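Good day; I would like, with your permission, to put a structural problem before you. A protein sequence and the structure tokens that stand for its backbone fold form the material at issue. Thank you for your consideration; the sequence and its tokens are set out here:
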Amino acid sequence: MAPRTLTRAAVAGLAAVALLGSAACGSGFDDSSGDATQSSGPASLQILIGSSGEAETKAVQDAAAKWAGSSGNTATVTPAQDLTQQLGQALAGGTPPDVFYVDAARFADYASVGALEPYGDKVSNPSDFYESLRTAFTYDGKLYCAPKDFSTLALQINTDLWAKAGLTDADVPTNWDQLTATAQKIKAKGQVPLALGDTRDRIGAFMVQNGGWLMSKDGKQATADTPENLAALQYVKTMLTTGLAKYPKQLDAGWSGEAFGKGKAVMTIEGNWIKGALQNDFPNIKYKVVPLPAGAKGQGTLSFTQCWGIAAKSKYKDQAIKFVEAMTSGEQQMSFAKAFGVMPSRQSVRDQYTSAFPADKPFIDGAAYAQGPVNAPKMDSVLVDLDTSLQGLTNGDPKTVLQNFDKNAKAALGAS
């Protein structure tokens, strides 16, 4: 079972973005027709979600029914078969749902064409959302939507294989030098040290740990071709070429969590979704979670998040904001965490979360030093090209990979 975040991050939205682009050039989302907000009477909210499964669907439907019952409105929650495609078609057709999940990796595409209502500051205590999550949903200086929940990356260690390699807690790596040293000890025992995903969504963490990233904070400038990013990719390449790290396909696995679950690697770098995947597919594996090793510039990880988007064309914006308010209350976020394993986006319930899920503390602690996805529109093909380059990193030139990203990103950012 592949993790839901990988599925959500998959590039399935090219057609949807094309639809958005044609809509933006045609009637446009800023068109005021059909945009009148209904101010009186009960609202009938349509809510479209990208569900990870039955547990999430039921939890959101139950929460929506509770809100509807207490507010006098109705709220119909529909799990999408393909959220990106269905949402893109609905937005382009001018008949969007009132409220819907928006992935951080898609957010800028929607915000840049006026599809989203920028309501973020109208929800109570927006500063309670982690700063890295607020940044992920800010476009042109506006917080568009309330972060729903989030995931981060951490290091998983197979404790049985760790002991088999003669390692102890003193060998748990806290920086790159220690990661290399520990990996060398594991390799010497005939085991694969690290299963590492072959895309920016895993390798990018090394850039952050070394003080780099692909884009400027405002999403306006490509910043890949820097000494910090070059050193990070050179480190990863060295791990790959010396056999200290291997991509999932080298381990006959679809993703790193599968390789880890099959005992083909002693360590892996994955998000908190791995917990459910291992419970389902590899229930007997024993492992622990620790923070990612720090780079030269300190700790760094990646965050994956979604927000509750509200359509700019919704007739029920006020009620939609009240719905989001209910969905992002601390109490409701803890209910969602217990129901389907997500981490609350509000800092005020962090202690409650770590008390309920102590083994997941490294994941939620990562919010303090996490980098969100590339926050710029029209970047799909650029990111696909980057991932293709990273998949060939063992025989590739890190400098060329970074230069190509900047060149392609500048072209995409400059396109009308």
